């Protein structure tokens, strides 16, 4: 029994860890079901700029940005043809977890405008992206490369009043892409509530 346990431990330690995503490298591929039961994959949006936004509607930092800021960003992005995918990696029984109906209710109540709200209850996609906080933001360029990862802005508070004076990294990165120039701030430290993964 002890030998078997020791062997299992060695196997577990030898298993390769998921490589952390890197700016300038291909964004991790994924396939998830959205809040309406439709399968969505990153490959579906090849040739388009994609924003990934990790969320938890009960998190004070998410509430700060959903006082109007996040919705405005989503709508402005859509006008430029950008795909916006909101991702919920909260596990069942943990803060912020929702099913499809719950996600749609939040989107409607908040006047949000993502292209799709993706359900990642097992947390596989969140872990593949090393998503740590809500919000945690990523931008994938039309070639499928990760060009931004980090915080939504440079002011890590839950105070709505701070949005006005903050530098929004997502807006800046999208502007750089639209102007066909390199993203000037390609990574930053994310802030917010921890993603409530299973386990």
Relevant terms:
9 strands; alpha+beta; globular; 199 residues; disordered N terminus; two-stranded antiparallel ribbon; Glutaredoxin; 7-stranded mixed beta sheet; 6 helices; single chain
DSSP strand tally = 9
Give the termini separation.
25 Å
Main sheet?
A: 7 strands, mixed
The overall average pLDDT, rounded, is 92
Q: Which residues sit in consecutive blocks of at least 5 with pLDDT less than 50? A: 1-17
CATH architecture: 3-Layer(aba) Sandwich
Rg from Cα: 17 Å
Query: Can you identify the CATH superfamily?
Result: Glutaredoxin
CATH overall fold name: Glutaredoxin
Fraction of helical residues = 25-40%
Q: Structural class of the secondary elements?
A: alpha+beta
Tally of separate helices: 6
Q: In percent terms, what proportion of residues is strand? A: 15-25%
Model description:
With about 200 residues, this protein is an alpha+beta fold. It has a single domain, classed as 3-Layer(aba) Sandwich (Glutaredoxin). It contains 6 helices and 9 strands, in the order H-E-E-E-H-H-E-H-E-H-E-E-E-H-E. The longest helix has 13 residues, at about 1-15. It is globular and about 45 Å long. The relative contact order is 0.21. Residues about 1-15 have low confidence and may be disordered.
């Amino acid at each position: 029994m002890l030998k078997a346990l020791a062997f299992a431990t060695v196997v577990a330690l030898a298993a390769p860890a998921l490589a952390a995503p890197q700016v300038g490298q291909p964004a991790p591929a994924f396939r998830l079901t959205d809040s309406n039961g439709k399968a969505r994959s990153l490959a579906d949006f090849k040739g388009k700029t994609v924003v990934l936004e990790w969320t938890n509607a009960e998190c004070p930092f998410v509430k700060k940005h959903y006082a109007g800021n996040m919705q405005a960003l989503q709508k402005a992005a859509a006008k430029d043809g950008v795909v916006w995918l909101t991702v919920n990696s909260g596990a069942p029984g943990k803060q912020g977890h929702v099913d499809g109906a719950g996600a749609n209710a939040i989107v409607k109540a908040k006047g949000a405008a993502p292209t799709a709200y993706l359900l990642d209850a097992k947390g596989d996609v969140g872990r593949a992206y090393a998503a740590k906080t809500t919000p945690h933001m990523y931008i994938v360029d039309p070639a499928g490369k990760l060009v931004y990862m980090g915080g939504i802005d440079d002011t890590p508070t839950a105070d709505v009043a701070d949005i006005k004076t903050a530098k929004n990294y997502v807006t800046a990165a999208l502007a750089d892409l639209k102007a066909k120039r390199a993203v000037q701030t390609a990574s930053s430290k994310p802030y917010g509530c921890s993603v409530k993964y299973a386990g």
